[in-house]
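Worked example (supplementary).
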Amino acid sequence: MDDLVLKTVARLLIPFIQLYGLYVILHGHLSPGGGFAGGVIVAAGFVLYALAFGRSALAAVFPERLSTWLESGGILWYVGLGLVGVFAGGAFLANARAGFPLGPAGRLFSGGLVFLLNLGIGIKVAATIATLFRHLEEE
Amino acid sequence: MRAVLITLILLLAAGALVAVALEMPPLGAPGAPALASPLTAYYQARAFYETACPNQVAAIVADYRAYDTLGETTVLFTAVAAILTLKHSRKEERDRG
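After joint prediction of all chains, the assembly is encoded as:
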């Protein structure tokens, strides 16, 4: 597909879509949203990019190897953070009891485990949707 | 014949779901089971102090019920693994014959 209107609009919109997705992920513990919603928005940016510029262009900016690594890394990050709780003498996925600093409520860097888990989920969901789109679109 | 049967079964399932949904108490009704649960009172009173998250949904999803969310994340991982497996097995079949 080679469409000037689509390409121009996509070029203008994608930075804002991805910025908004990152905002939703990073503010997951402060406002509605979180890792799942934000990850899907970030992935929507990748999908729009692939639709407007083609799959090979997406592979150039977001290689398949990278999304595989983020995919597995996201879930390992999650389990690793859970194990911190075990080694700190608490329960699996413990928050303040595992020593994660809660910080002042309402600030960006606060919430301890909640913030870190949202970050991992967001990265993982974005990689998942991008991978699914890449492979299902090929068929 | 098979299509009629499938349609009938799906309609029955949809009917059951709609019937259940109609029985649900309205959002925020005082007698609703969700509000009667002692957990609701606990979360409302303590979640903010225990997690320092103004967003109570995030506090529950990523702290109290983090185990549940780990399962959800695993579902996504499994979905990708299944699709890649199917795709590669098809490719092998095509290459062979």
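Two points are worth noting when inspecting this output. The interface with chain A takes residues 48, 50-55, 57-59, 61-63, 66-67, 69-70, 72-74, 76-77, 79-80, 83-84, 87 of chain B (CB under 8 Å). Residues 30-64 of chain B form one domain.
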